[in-house]
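Dear colleagues,

As part of the handover before I leave the project, I'm documenting each prediction I ran so the next person doesn't have to rerun anything. This entry is a single chain, and its sequence is reproduced below.
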Amino acid sequence: MTYAAISPLAKTELFSEQWQPKVVAEMNDYQFKVARLEGDFVWHSHADTDETFIVLEGSLRIDFRDGAVELAAGEMFVVPKGKEHKPFAAKEVKVMLIEPRGVVNTGDEDQGERTAQNDVWI
């Protein structure tokens, strides 16, 4: 077996599309995904799971119906399950997401082109 460290930030340099998370590792039933984000996403929620955002580079705002949280590089936030939210990045931000395998990025509803294919590894 070959052992190698994973650099989530370096993995973001292997693709350019935005709002399309890519899996870089799994632990039990959880996936570690990286994504490049810019602009507004869609309002959505995940009824059955929390979702963790870790900012690798740039800054991210996560809007809620009753407020918002601002994240800088090196910071993280866990969105509680069932909490409606909408990520926003004024400039491109690189993030790592931690969530159970099979979670759809747009939550419980298909949001067309914003709904990413699951289990795409990089």
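Residues 81 and 90 are 25 Å apart (CA to CA). The chain has a mean pLDDT of 95.

All the best with the project,
I.
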